[in-house]
UniProtKB/TrEMBL annotation:
Superkingdom per UniProt: Bacteria
Complexes and interactors: Associates exclusively with 100S ribosomes, which are dimers of 70S ribosomes.
Gene3D superfamilies assigned to the protein according to its UniProt record, in alphabetical order: Ribosome hibernation promotion factor-like
GO MF entries: ribosomal small subunit binding
NCBIfam families: yfiA
Keywords noted in UniProt: Translation regulation
One GO process term, biological-process aspect: negative regulation of translational elongation
InterPro entries, A to Z: HPF/YfiA_ribosome-assoc (IPR050574), RHF-like (IPR036567), RHF/RaiA (IPR003489)
Organism: Dyella solisilvae
Coiled coil: none
Family (UniProt): Belongs to the HPF/YfiA ribosome-associated protein family. Short HPF subfamily.
Name listed for the protein in its UniProt record: Ribosome hibernation promoting factor
Gene: raiA
Cellular component, GO annotation: cytosolic small ribosomal subunit
Amino acid sequence: MQVQISGQQIEVTPALRDHVNSRLDRLTRLDDRILTLNIVLSVNKLQQRAEGTLGISGTNLHAEATENDMYVSIDVLFDKLVTQLRKHREKICDKHQRAAREERMYG
């Protein structure tokens, strides 16, 4: 998986990079076919914002989180991406299971 972390009007410190990397295993445990993860960290006055785009085979998932603390923003962002990835996997699995069921019934 290719991970890109960038900052707008904020320097991406090693501590922020480590925090993001420590959260990656939550995504890779769900799906090992993740291709890319792009994270953009930005600051607007008192709002700390984290945006992430997850590239998986066939589609992209996007989420963003705005909190008062950058570490909390990163945690909320990963929570949202995990939820989206679970829904996407369920949708894919349902399609495959439905096709197999119909083949057994009518095939």
